[in-house]
């Protein structure tokens, strides 16, 4: 049974997620991308170079959709395709991290500054609680995603 505190926290978490999507969509539009393309580009920055198949597995997109995604990134010169040295049939997607950061850093500058100020306003104990919540919530989401993708 869901109590009031749980319901309130769940609603706040949902509002955070919705607001995050709206902000990232606005940032993406300013950068000339869609919101989802922006987030998938984030996967490439975070994970580094990978094959198109690996990106497909990571994102849950079909290989055809990943090809279109890579085409859009390549057109904007945000990634390069290169052949794997050990197998020329394998294409490696290499992000141009410098160019990507040049595009996004100015768009995130004020958000980042305000977020850092907000985080600094919490005590070490409070930050640990927030960190624990996010870490465990991420585990739950990853588990849910994994189970849904297996069905």
Short descriptors:
single chain, 151 residues, transcription regulation, DNA-binding, mainly alpha, 6 helices, globular, 3 strands, Arc Repressor Mutant, subunit A
Provide a brief overview of the structure.
This protein has helices spanning 4-30, 35-47, 52-59, 63-75, 97-120, 124-150, and strands at residues 50-51, 79-83, 91-95.
Q: Can you describe what's shown?
A:
The chain has 151 residues and is mainly alpha-helical. 74% of the residues lie in helices and 8% in strands. It has one domain: Arc Repressor Mutant, subunit A. The chain has 6 helices and 3 strands, in the order ααβααββαα. The radius of gyration is 18 Å and the shape is globular. Keywords: DNA-binding, Transcription, Transcription regulation. Residues 1-139 form the HTH marR-type domain. It comes from Niastella caeni.
Secondary structure tally: strands: 3
Rg on CA atoms, Å: 18 Å
CATH homologous superfamily, by name?
A: Winged helix-like DNA-binding domain superfamily/Winged helix DNA-binding domain
Second CATH tier, the architecture: Orthogonal Bundle
Largest sheet: 3 strands, antiparallel
Structural class by sheet pairing and helices: mainly alpha
**What is the straight-line distance between the termini?**
27 Å
N-to-C SSE string, H for helix and E for strand: HHEHHEEHH
Our estimate of the beta-strand percent is: 5-15%
């Amino acid at each position: 049974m869901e109590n009031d505190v749980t319901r309130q926290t769940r609603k706040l978490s949902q509002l955070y997620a919705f607001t995050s999507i709206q902000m990232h969509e606005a940032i993406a539009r300013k950068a000339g991308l869609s919101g989802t393309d922006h987030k998938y580009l984030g996967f490439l920055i975070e994970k580094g170079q990978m094959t198109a198949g690996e990106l497909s597995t990571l994102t849950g997109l079909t290989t055809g959709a990943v090809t279109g995604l890579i085409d859009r990134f390549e057109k904007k010169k945000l990634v390069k395709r290169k052949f794997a040295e050990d197998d020329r049939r394998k294409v490696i997607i290499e992000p141009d991290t410098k160019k990507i950061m040049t595009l996004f850093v100015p768009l995130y500058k004020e958000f980042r500054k305000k977020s850092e100020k907000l985080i600094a306003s919490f005590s070490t104990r409070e930050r640990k609680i927030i960190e624990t919540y996010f870490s465990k919530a991420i585990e739950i989401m990853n588990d849910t995603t994994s189970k849904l993708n297996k069905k």
